[in-house]
Every structure is written in C-alpha cells, then in structure tokens.
C-alpha cells in the first residue's frame, strides 16, 4: 500500500526538482546575459573614475581604489578635439541646438503629412506615401555629395542651420510614417461628421486629431531625438571646426593621436555624449521601443 | 474660392514635404547616378563617359576588401544577432518576475550612439590594458585577444560590438512576436502533453516567420549602412582591413577628393540595399492593400 501512495509523491518531488533545476539554469543564463550587456557600461563608468596611474596598474573590471572626477572635468571642458581644447561642452550644446529645432520641425511636418495621407485621401496620396517611405531606406551615402553642394549653394555649408535642414529633410519619411500609421486607425467617419458640422481641415486637426496624438508625438519625438543626437555621418560630412555635433567631437577626442592616451577622459566623454539618449531611454523606454518596432512589426 | 481652397488644402499641406523628398531623395539619387557615369575627380563633371568609374571600383583592391568585409560582417552580425535575440526572447518569455528590468538591460545599447559603442569596445578590447591584460593578470600568460589591432581579426571585433548593440533590439521584436502567438493553440498542445521545446520548434517559431523577415531586413539595413561603428572602433584599419563600403565612400568623397569613385560606390551600396528592401516593401504594401 505504501508503495502506491509513495510513488506519485516521489514522482512529484522529482518533477519539482527538475523544475527547480530548470528555473535555476534559466536565471543563471539570464543573469550572464545581463552581465554581458552591462559590462561595457560598468567598465566605462569605473574607468572614467580612475586615475591614469590606476588604469595602467589595475584590472579592467576592478572598482576604482580612489574615485576622482578629474577625467570628467577634462572631458567636459579641457580635452582636445583637434586644435581646439575646450572639451565636449561647446559640441554638446551644438548637438542640443541642432536636435531641438530639427526634432520639432520634422515632428510637426510628419503630423501634418500623416493627417493628410491617412484622413484626406486624394488620388496619388498612396503613391506619395510610398515614395516618402522609400526615402527612409536609402543609404545616405547616395545623397552626401549632392547635399554638400546644395548646402554650399544655399550658403549653409558647415553651419548649424545646414545640419538642422538636413536632419529635417531626411527625418520626414519616418515621422510621416509614424503619424500616418497612427491616424489610419482613427475611423474616417470622425472627419465626415466634423465636416458636416462645418469644421474645416485645420479645425478638425486642432480640436480632434491633435488631442488624440500625445502617444505618437512622444514616440516620434523620442525616435527623432535619438536619431539626430546619435547621428555621425551627417555631422562629420556637413560640419566644420566650430559646428560639429557631440558625436564627431567625441570621435575626435578618442582618435586624436597627440599626447598621452587618456582612457579615463575618453570614457567620461563617451558617457557624456551618451547621457541624453540614455536618460530618454530610462524615462520613456516604452515609447522608445514602440518607435523601434513601429516600422518593422506589422500592424 | 474658399471652396476651392478647402478642397485643395490637404494637397498644399503635403506639397512642401513631397517636393523636398522628390528633390533631396530622388533628385539627389539621380545626380549621384549621373556623376557616377562621368570622369569626375575633385570637381564633378557632367559629360557621361560610360562605366569607367565602376570599372575602377571593381578593380580596386580596397573596394574588394570593403565588399568582402561587408559580406563577413553582415552575415555574422545578422546571424548572431538573430540567434541571440531569439534565445533571449524565449528565455524572457518564461514568466519571469524581473522581465521588465532584464528587458531594459538587454535593450539599452540600442539607445547609444555607435560612436559611444565603438569607443567603449575599443577600450575593452585594447590588448595592452583591456580584457587581454585582465585575463593575463589572472595568470593565463599566453592569453591573446588582439582582434582590434590584428588585420585578420579586426572585422570580427566590429561584429562583437555590433551584436552587443543590436541583439537587444532583435529580442524586443521576437518578444513582441511571442506575445502575439495564439495562446489557445499553445494550451491545447500542452494538454496533449507535447514537450515545451517541441511547442517552440513546431508551433511558435514557424508562426513568427514574418518577424524573422523584419529582423533580417532591419539588421541587413544596419549592416550596409555601418559607418560610425567602424570609424570609432578601428577607423577602418589596421590599414584598410576593416573598410566597409560606407567608409570607402566617405574616404573617396571627403579625404581623397575622388567624386567619381564616391558616387559609384554609393550607387553600388544603394543597389545592395534595394535588392533587399524592394521585394520586402513590395510585399508589405501589397499585403496591406489586400
């Protein structure tokens, strides 16, 4: 009798045990991967807090014995980005001055375009949308040369307004895509009803569509900000000594060949350049992910 | 008049953007295509002279290196990111309480500039002071990890950094896909006593085929456009061992002053992108119309 009652219990405990082992393996794997993704950030932070002496003698992953913020100060206001030695600070502000208007303008244009394409269909609207969408996917190398000449003709070569212009132009495709895909889910009867009530194109946009748009505005702003802040190709191609964005300045600091290599300064500079987008990610990660997956997951 | 205005306002709102795209995307592509058929060097010339630039391009050993690097980098980058991303998504899909935190950790590299990623990994892979020195410090004196400065291995260093940056994104795509699989089918399979791994390989993964395609498209696109990462990590070197088409184009355009080569290499890049994207966009747009 005892056998009969014990057998299921033993099986259950064996099952429990294998369940436990599985969970344990699962968590170990997940933890190891978390370490893999966190390691570079950890190394960047600890290296930036060490003195050069400690970097030379200590281990890559050791905590700093003596925490010093010298490297941060140097990276922010003294490091050389070529002949200029003012640190990242002026270039950080360049990036802000480029990103803020470029994000604002491209988002507004995207909202207007998306509204028209999704709700005010006319013959050819779909073709226009396809053509704009296509523009998102071109490798920008194919427009670098003519754009450099065009900026020269417009008198914007090497200037910050020139970079704003470029980012707006090549951001329109994505912002239009985001808003169009959002507005297309809003029933067209809404516009019809509002038209019957005598509301016009702009009125309907202002009082019906814009109030609904907060989530997609957040997604678009975050997407555009991340793209423009992290841009390097346009920044390096269309800027000159005083107008470079922070990514270009960071690269210049890291790859400058003169003097002693200050790895702690490199790391502090890299973190400074990364902080704005990391902050956005930490605060609004959900919307960041939505933007990333918006173009690539159907529906 | 007002009625006419009312009817045409939508078109007028769309017009500036549309014209901008026509000029700055399609017009510029046409310009580059045209110049790629001329003998332009430091300054553009506009007399068409056949395929001379493409001939020069395909005979340049440096372009050859760039294309085979793109092939090696692209294949490994896409493959490893996909496998890692899928694996992470499946691991995270096991009703983990800390899923939110882990997802955040796996995905944050995607928020970073590739210049930052390149800078960080350049330091980590620094042979004298980075991982190599660390492992040697543990007593493994003959341990070598000099990929960033080794011409034969440097492209694999770029793969490591690229995978670190993009695999979390692939995970997010797959995780969204896993969540979209019909729960009833899985439950039914479980009731039938089908082991979990079989459920994944026979039901869940095949049903995510569109997501594999999306992930492939996005990753391929990233790989072809890769520029920042190489510049920050290896500068295209040692020598031009890690040159990619994007860095080749940039060098020709802005340091060598060889506009003809820059234009023709850009056109080849666009050809590669379109060969991948066009069938995809076409099927997407058609599916939406049906």
Give an account of the 3D structure.
The complex is a heterodimer of chains A (299) and B (290). Chain A has helices spanning 2-48, 52-57, 70-77, 89-119, 125-137, 141-153, 160-183, 189-196, 201-212, 214-230, 233-238, 246-255, 263-294. With 299 residues, chain A is mainly alpha-helical. Mean pLDDT of chain A is 87; it is low at 1-5. Chain B is mostly helical and 290 residues long. Chain B is built from 13 helices and no strands. The chains are: A mainly alpha (299), B mainly alpha (290). At the A-B interface, helix 1, helix 4, helix 5, helix 6 and helix 7 of A face helix 1, helix 3, helix 4, helix 5 and helix 6 of B.
The radius of gyration computed from the alpha-carbon positions of chain A, rounded to a whole number of angstroms, is: 26 Å
Give the CA-based shape of chain A. Answer: flat
Number of extended strands of chain A = 0
Helix content of chain A: over 70%
The biggest beta sheet of chain A reads:
none
The proportion of strand residues of chain B reads under 5%
**What does the main sheet of chain B amount to?**
none
Q: SSE order of chain A, as H and E?
A: HHHHHHHHHHHHH
Unreliable parts of chain B: none
Mean pLDDT of chain B: 88
Please name the defining characteristics of this protein.
heterodimer, A: 299 residues, 13 helices, B: 290 residues, mainly alpha, 74% helix, flat
List the helices and strands and how they pair.
The complex is a heterodimer of chains A (299) and B (290).
Chain A: H1 2-48, H2 52-57, H3 70-77, H4 89-119, H5 125-137, H6 141-153, H7 160-183, H8 189-196, H9 201-212, H10 214-230, H11 233-238, H12 246-255, H13 263-294
Helix pairs in contact in A: 1-13, 3-13, 4-7, 4-10, 4-12, 5-7, 7-10, 10-13, 12-13
Chain B: H1 2-35, H2 52-59, H3 61-92, H4 99-107, H5 114-124, H6 131-137, H7 154-180, H8 183-191, H9 196-207, H10 209-225, H11 228-233, H12 245-255, H13 259-289
Report a brief summary of the structure.
Chain A is mainly α and 299 residues long. Chain A contains 13 helices and no strands. With 290 residues, chain B is mainly α.
